[in-house]
Design a protein that fits this description.
The longest helix has 28 residues, at 160-187. This protein is of the alpha+beta class. The protein has helices at 34-42, 59-72, 80-92, 96-120, 129-147, 160-187; strands at residues 13-17, 23-25, 30-32, 47-51.
């Protein structure tokens, strides 16, 4: 899977597939699994799977297999309607679909990078969407704490203290619900 930039630092890691279907990492000189290949790709490496005997490039086949395994385990990222349209595009011989998907994903990556870069300007560096999620949660917890919501006021000894505590707890539950909704939205970015 090359990105078109074959500079020495960006050359793909060659994985050789033997006749026994075992996969061999030519860099580390050991056998690897599909999960190992997926981890290499997640870490930013470009990987190319090549049949040892024929020299055929099998990268696409193995990438699809990695995606299929993740989808089968419940780590679903591709909606059924998108998968359906992809299948339809094979029968339509639509040549625009691959380019459209590539351009869409590149735009998504650029927007995500832009968002993360923008968030870095507000404090310590943000390295992932999960990091954004964690920072938002921390921010809202500090915000809630600064309002005194959920804290018991021991200095108040009036009869209104009990009703204030109940009201504060209701507000806290409402804010927690809103925070969960926001966290869900951020996690889906």
């Amino acid at each position: 899977m090359t990105t078109g930039d074959d500079t020495p630092s960006n050359k793909p890691l060659i994985i050789k597939r033997y006749a026994s279907r075992r996969l061999y990492n030519t860099e580390s000189s050991d056998y690897v699994t599909l999960q190992d290949i997926a981890e290499l790709i997640r870490s930013g490496r470009n990987v190319q799977v090549v049949d040892l005997k024929t020299g055929d490039d099998l990268t696409r086949q193995y990438l699809i297999q990695i995606i299929a395994e993740h989808e089968a385990r419940g780590e679903q990222i591709l909606p059924v309607d998108v998968l359906t349209e992809i299948v339809r595009s094979y029968s339509d011989h639509a040549t625009i679909i691959p380019e459209f998907l590539r351009a869409s994903f590149e735009a998504f990556q650029q927007n995500q990078q832009f968002m993360l870069e923008g968030l870095k300007q507000f404090g310590t560096p943000v390295v992932s969407v999960k990091d954004v999620h964690d920072r938002q949660k921390e921010f809202f917890e500090r915000l809630i704490g600064s309002w005194g919501i959920g804290e018991t006021q021991t200095s108040e000894k009036t009869s209104d203290s009990a009703s204030d505590t109940v009201r504060n707890e209701d507000e806290l539950q409402d804010i927690k619900r809103q925070l969960a909704e926001l966290q869900s939205k951020v996690a889906n970015l």
